[in-house]
Predict the 3D structure of the following.
Amino acid sequence: MYADHLELWYAQKCVERIPRLRGEGKHKIQYRHIIDWLVRKPGAFENYRYREDLFPTSRFRMAYDRLKKQHAAQKAAKEYLRILEMASKEGEALVDEALCSVLLLPEVVAADVEMFVESYKRRSMPQTEVEIAKPDLRAYDALLSVGEAV
């Protein structure tokens, strides 16, 4: 515990750093911690006390609002939770980028977001392999024989 944050350590590795909130009525909910529970009970999302914390960016909020306009509350919550679960598994930035494209379509569907995420993952640059040549040790032996390394 620190004055401005809390750190969670597991196996000698810092796995989470949470800002410390002071005062009453303050909260910070990490959707990654509760998404599995919410996906199993999508009806709980609509009346969840800390629901506003489950919109990581404004695009997530815009997607949920569009889903509510297109579908009944239960189906909209279910679709949004699929998108949020995808963000917890594939990466929030990747899903946010996919939502940018999906929000341009006339209808928002979690399957479309998943399709865009898969295409972004395939399009990402492959890792470059670096090969380091082994040093020629004869050059060091030559320095020792001349006496310069002494």
Q: What stands out?
A: The longest strand covers residues 13-19. Residues 21 and 27 are 7 Å apart (CA to CA). The beta strands are 5-10, 13-19. The radius of gyration is 25 Å.
